[in-house]
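Sample entry (376 residues):
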Amino acid sequence: MINSTSLAKIVQIKKGKKEQESSLYSDNRKRYLQIEDLRTNQNIKFCTPNNKSVEVCNDDVLIAWDGANAGTIGFQLAGIIGSTLARLRVDTEKAYPQYLGRYLQFRFPEIRNNCTGATIPHVSGHHLRELSVPLPPLPEQKRIATILDKADALRDKRKKSIAKLEDLLQSVFLDMFGEPLTNPKGPVGTLEEVCNKITDGTHISPKWSTQGVPFLFVSNIKNCEINFDTKQFIPDEEYCRLTKNNPIEIGDILYTVVGSYGKPAMVRDNRKFAFQRHIAHIKPKKTISSEYLESMLSTKAILQQADQVVTGIAQKTLILKELRKLRIIIPTYDQQKKFVEQKESIMKQLSLQKAMSYQSEIFFVALQQRAFRGEL
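Predicted structure, serialized as tokens:
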């Protein structure tokens, strides 16, 4: 049986301070760590430390203390931490820092669920300090951390493969067709010109049901896919009423226009569903490939056009009038068909990588459970 102890007995917790950040490095500056740095190294910042600064080293564990990402864990980072982070200085005679970091990542859901604050979550210091930590001998902690590091590297490799394939799809599109405003490789027109209808979802408050036909929201449209995982349903007769004048058909495209706007997804099967008015309903003409149009609408060039015409401050909105005027490239149908063939090849690889990524996630969670039960 593995001995356990409370987190308070193996770490000292100290919150960071707000610093004056800079994007430029100099000899008297050190890396300035904030919440986003727990996930990526893509936007490195610096600050000039002072006697109130809280410095961290590679043997410290970091936790996001305040904000939407409260409870997020990072480790093996060095620099000065900002006010939304806290340093967990580890007693290395009792705990191996990477092992403790991995364990706290595993306990993230519990840490998160015990956060305080209605609008801005804050880590509960009391709960965190009382958190029970299994502590096998140090050599065993190092062995477990090494195994989890390797499994995590596999997860990361899968994610990078997916990102590269998504980038490849964008590159193929740009190579074939260019950008509609700066470098088009074909005639340019408006979205309205290639569509029979551009409207939006229901404006009527539907009759809800505990089961039946899924009712989708903006959050259900992501990465050119329609996610049917929802807790909102409507009766079949309500679905018929809402879609009577504008049926949802294979090849139609949904496009988010409020909040997280600018995300397209093509309807690929005959399953029944309805959706809110914050999603536009686009019906392409037969002269335009739905697969091509979905890819066109997912380009940065289209999103940049949308960025220039959205209205609202708290909730950005792309009105249908402006959506219809978006400038797109209209290549010949043969060119569209050639692109779709290449897209299908890439999508098959992407689907395979996503399936492998899903399996690696399941494997990693199972590995964590075994590791911290002493079964690894």
